[in-house]
Amino acid sequence: MRNPNGYGSVVKQAGNRRRPFAVRKTKGWNEKGQPIYDTIGYYATKEEALIALAEYNKNPYDIDNSKITMAELYEKWSERAFQKMTPASISAHKMSFNKATSLHNMKYKEIKTYHMQEIVDLSGKHSNQAKVKNLFNHLDKIALEFDVVTKCYSSLITIDSAPETTKEPFTDEEVDKLWEIKEQAWVDSILVFLYSGFRISELLDLKTSNVDLVEGTMKGGIKTKAGKNRIVPIHSKVFELIELRFNENNKYLFSHKGKKLSTTTYYKLWNPIMKQLDMQHTVHETRHSGLD
Asked: Of 1, 67, 73, 137, which has the most beta carbons under 10 Å away?
């Protein structure tokens, strides 16, 4: 039976091909009156090709979008999404994208769960696997938006279980040791960590303009939507320490030579203090100490 005008056609290509059946639609005519085709895709059997043609006619999509590669889709997504992200989140997504180089030039509609899973499995520790899965989640959503795919294969990805945490909170005796040398450079930052609950990135990103000594509050936080710009009361025990930093009139409350600190630089200041006091804590362990 002949297909209706404008329906499209299935054509078997010459030669020994893995997917010899081409599905195509006429998009116009050249000056000689010959048809100009847009190819929807290539298929291993005629039956698959006819099903694809029927699906296309049931729910037409942009044929150019159907050919988009993972790298091209990432470019479209990141151009929009990165405007609303923190530098840390952007860095995490770029890292995840670089782990999937084997898929960059592959048509996104041909990427299935097992392709994604292989990248995730090779990404190393749990936190990296979670980041890679998160990127595929984002790409699947924009692929759905552009009618590139009809299913989110990333939803089927599995990642390793999170390792058990071995965080050691600061003891009362260790906190007392810090108070004994509070005048020493950068000990004040450790005490503020202990009494504020800020993460390292949150405290290092804290601008002096977001510290209100009159109200006794600090505004910060970046980890989640609910945590952004949250108001944190200044604990009475560290109020004076924060006031001294505030009066230095730097852009960031905890600045190094007047400039914002990176996490790497901060640990170069943190580690000697830990060694001096015979402690082996990470900054994150200040959040597990529960001081009041």
From this structure: 73
